[in-house]
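#structure-requests
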Amino acid sequence: MTDLAAPGSAFHADANRALARRGKDLLVAKDLPDLVAALEPLEAYFIVKELGVGDALPILKHATDEQLQTLIDLDCWRDDRPDLLELDAWLSSFAAESYTAAAAAFVRLDPELQVWLLAETLDIYEAHDESAPETPDDVPRMTTPDAFFVLLPRPEVVLDLEPFALVTALYAADAEEAYRLLTAARWELMSTLEEIAYGFRGGRLEDLGFPPKDEALRLFAPPPKVALPRRAPATPTRVPAVYMQPLLEGSLLTRALAALSDPTLLTSIESDVVYLINAAILAYGESPRDVTHVTLIAARVRDTVSLGLELAIGAELGIANPADPGAVTAASSLLATCPLRQLFQTGHAAVTALQHEARALASDPVVAQWLQAPTADTDDYSQDRRDRELLTALTRERPLYGGFDPVQPSRRKAFASRAELAAAEARLDAIANRVA
């Protein structure tokens, strides 16, 4: 269901601009370099992710250093270590054009990451070093153009990138710098390189609005007892298309955003939406690398904030029906004064109360046995199947609404309204009466 505001609203205009900046539209644009340069780093990242690195090469060729750095920071790390396979995929897309292009992309990495990549892919010996092993004729071996090093590919590392071709291109671009990199790769401790690179990356991610994990997890803390004042973000951020698309689907948050007439205030709140989704991605244990999951998290944020808005205007103004015209006015006024994180926490706290009921029910031995009963088959659309999905989803660490879709019983979403909470609670009572 689409619930976008009237075409003349400021939010409608922002949504159109966001959705127009999709990758396929950029690829056919005549002014591609200018359009790419105008993208915020997070926008550029998700455009590349939607297209795939190979198809996005025309965009990557015109990307700014900050845009490329964001791509590496978000896509080429797994937990606290660089991800060699993702770095390989990124560099290989440039190598498909030429290794000169791959070398130019390589030197835009953090210096520590350049050294780390060479050390991970090559065994490096000084040419006069007698410890350099003899190798059969069929084993690749390279002496660098300056004759200082003998290089052997590490046999356990299988990449699309040809490391010897990359080294040759690095020497062609700057022989002195290539020598320095190989010397560092031979002697630097890998753990030290990773630690330094990880520290720089963490600072840049915070600048993008991705908080440290412990701060992100505060989304699931109880809301403050005293309402906090809303503060404008330090740096306004446009909403990427993958975040904007879920916002266009029916919700109280959507209608409240569309009712805002002050463009400066709307820009500030949209920036808060970006930071909230960024934090939620981390708090739910997901990664920005999976665009499908990112879209699901954005929808959870939309629904949980909508629930928080509904609860808040109900408590403060006695507005019980979110479909009432006055609900939208009240919700948009609340967005202007209340931090989005507090609204998210308010919505999540209401679901947590339902989670406690579900866990108490699931702890009953009879219900526990019923809950663990195997599903007959994938075509099971019975009430039992749906109720098991509901109880399972509610008892998770991060409770969700399951079993609400008769056609797709396993589908899960965040609770978006008091009506959904009431429906789930009634079903828990029905399970208790039928099973326990």
